[in-house]
Amino acid sequence: MPDRPEVTAVEIARLAGVGRAAVSNWRRRHPDFPRPIGGTDSSPTFPLDQVEQWLRSQGKLAELPLLEQAWRLTETLRDPAGPPLAPLLWAGALLLLLHRMPQDWTELADRPDTRLATALPRALRRTAEAALGTPATDTLGLPALAGSTSLDLARLLARLAEQHGPTGTYEQLLTRHAEANSRQLAPTPPEAAALLAALAGAGPGADAWPHEGRTGPVTVLDPACGLGALLLAAGPDTARAGQDLDPGYAALALLRLALHTPAAVPGPLTLDLRSGDALRADAHPGLTADLVLCQPPYNERDWGHDALQYDTRWPGGVVPPRGESELAWVLHCLAHTRPGGLAALLLPPTVASRRAGRRVRAELIRSGALRAVVALPAGAAPPYGVPLHLWVLRRPRPDDEFRHLLLLDAAATHPTAEGGRERVDWPALGRTVLDAWHAFDAAARTGGPLPADRPGVHRAVAALDLLDDETDLSPARHLPAAAPAAGADTLSHLRGRLGELLGELADLDHRLPAVTAVPAVTTPVVTVGELARGGALEIHSAGPGGPGRASGPGSGAPLLTDQDLLAGRPPSGATDPGHPEALTARPGDVLVPALGGETAHAVHAGDRYDGAVLGPRLHLLRPDPAQLDPDFLAGRLRATGTTRRASSHASTTTRLDIRRLEIPRLPVERQRTLGAAFRRLADFHTALTDAAGLGRDLARALTDAIASGTVEPAE
Length: 715
Fold this sequence. Notes:
The chain is α/β, with parallel strands linked by helices. The protein folds into three domains: 6-180, no CATH class; 217-478, 3-Layer(aba) Sandwich (Rossmann fold); 524-665, Alpha-Beta Complex (Adenine-n6-DNA-methyltransferase TaqI, Chain A, domain 2). Helices cover 41% and strands 15% of the residues. Residues 169-418 form the DNA methylase adenine-specific domain. InterPro entries: DNA_methylase_A-5, Restrct_endonuc_typeI_TRD_sf, SAM-dependent_MTases_sf, Type-I_RE_MTase_Subunit.
C-alpha cells in the first residue's frame, strides 16, 4: 500500500469545492503550494497530507466531506501489487451487509477492533453467499482478516449509508472511480441504458410488450457488461447474466446489481456475472437469452479474427473482417438471442457504412435479423462527441418472413444543444424512438400495416431496397427530406417582421443616445469586491448551475447558459420539473459570464432573462438600487477596459475575476443618467442581434422552400 496517498489537481479542486483552474492559479501564485511527487507533467500528483494542510492554512478546507474521506481510504487501501479494485469490492460487500442484514452490523459495530477484525469478514461472506451463492462470492476475493484502515472505511460507509442509503452510497463511490479512471472506463449513462432496455422490452413499461412464450422471468445478457449499467436498466425482475474482460469490473457489477435488488428478495439472486473475453472464451456457452443488451468495445484490431475463422456464430460462413470487431459483437449477441428474442446494441455510426462490413450487413438484412438502425444525437453515450447508432435485432423464427428495416434519424430530430451530453432531451428522444419502434415491431409481429413514413424522421425500408453495392444503413441516407417548416404565409410574415426591425434600427436618433465631447477627468474607482464588502451589492456565482435539459413539454423554469448570455439569445434550456431552483435572476440583477467576453446584462421586468435559472459559469450581481444603478453597473462592465483589467488568461480561455472589476465612484443620480444611456445602447445591440438572427432564419427558410419546390420566385 502507498505510504503517502497522492491526489491529482482535479481531486484537489473537489476537496476545496473549486474548479481545476483555481488549483492551477494556486500553484502559480503561492510558492508554498505543495510540490508534485508523481504523475506526469500534464497530470501531476501531490501528497494528500501536505495538500490538506495547505488548504486548511489558507482557510479553503474546513472539514473533509464523508464521501471524500471514504474515497481517500479506498485509495489508501489500494495495493499496487494486488487487485486494484479490492477496496471497492470490500466497500460493496460491507454495503450489501447494510442493505440485506442491517441488524448484523448493529450487533458488530460496537465490538473492539481486535474482535471486529475477524467477525466482520465472516459476516460479509455470510451475507454475500446468501445473496449471490458461494461461487460468485469467491470471485469477490474478500479477506479473512480486516485491518484498521478497512474497519475505518466500514464505519465511514455506515455513516454515509445513513444519509444516502447503501445503494446510493455505492453509486457515489462507483461514480468517483469512473471519474478517476475516465480513460479506461466509460460507463453507459442510465438514460441511454434505459432506452436500450425499453426498446428490448425490459425495465419500466415492459409489461406492455410481453415476451411471447415465456412463463418464467425474462433472461437478459450483456456480454460486455462493465459496471452493469445495461443489466441494471433491465430491472430486478429479470434473470441477468453478463461477462466482462476485467474480473474486477464483473465483480463490481455483481455487487451493484445485488444492491439495487430489493432486500426482501430471497437469495441466491438470479445474477450470473463472469469474467473473460466473450468473443474468444464465451463464459455462457449455450445460453439463449430473451434479451441481449450491449455496448461493446470499439475499434478492436485483436479481437480473435484469425482464431475464429470457423466459428458457428457467423451466419452463412460470413466471417467479420479484421477491422469490423463491432460486427463480430453484433453476431455474438445475435447467437445468444433465442428465436423471437431481441438484441439492442450501441455502435459507432461507421459500422453502418464501412465497405469492409458490407457482406455481414447484407446477411443480417437478408435473414431478417436486423430490424432497426437508430441514429442518436451526439452526447447520448460515450464517446460523447460521436452520434452513435442503436441497432435492434430480432432473431428470426423459422416461419418469420418479415423483411423490412426501420431507419430512424433521431440525431436530426433531436440535435444536442450547446452543453453536450447534459443537454440531451431524453424524454422527447425516448418518445420519438419508442413510438416508432413499437409501431414498427407490432406490424412485424402481427402482420399489420407498417407505420407511415415520417419525412426527415423515420421510414420502413424493404430489405431488397438496401441490398446494393454498399448496403449503407445510415438512416439519413434513406429518409425522405422533411417538408420545409415555412410556407409562403410564414415567409411573408418573417419578411415583414424583419422589415419592421430594420426600420426601427434605421432611426438612430431614437435608438442611440446623443453624445457631446467633455474634458478628461479622473474619477476615483472602487472594485466590485469592495462594493460587496460595503453592502452596495451582493455577489452570487452559479457554480455548477441548475440541473438542465433541452426545453420542451413538461420542462421546468427556463435555464440560462453562459453561451446564451454571450450570444444575447433567450434561455435555451429548462430545469428538471420539481427540482429546487438554485439561483434565479430577477429585475435589478446584473448577469455576467465567468469566462469574460465584455458582456453584462441588467435584468428588467418581463425581459428574456427575468425569472431564468442560472446555469454554470455565470455570475449574478444584485446591487442595492439606492446605492448602485443596475444599468450603470452593467454598462460599465461591458466596457472593454473594465473587463480587460480584471481578466486572467489560460491557454484557451479568459476567466473574469468578478471582484476585481472597477466601477467609478459617482452619485446615484449621475449613475441613473448614465445608466439610461447604457440601457439604450444595450437595447440597440439586442435589436441588432435579433435582426441578424431573424435574417439568417429568413434566408435559410427561403432557401429550403425554393429548393423543395413548395414556393418559387415571383416574376
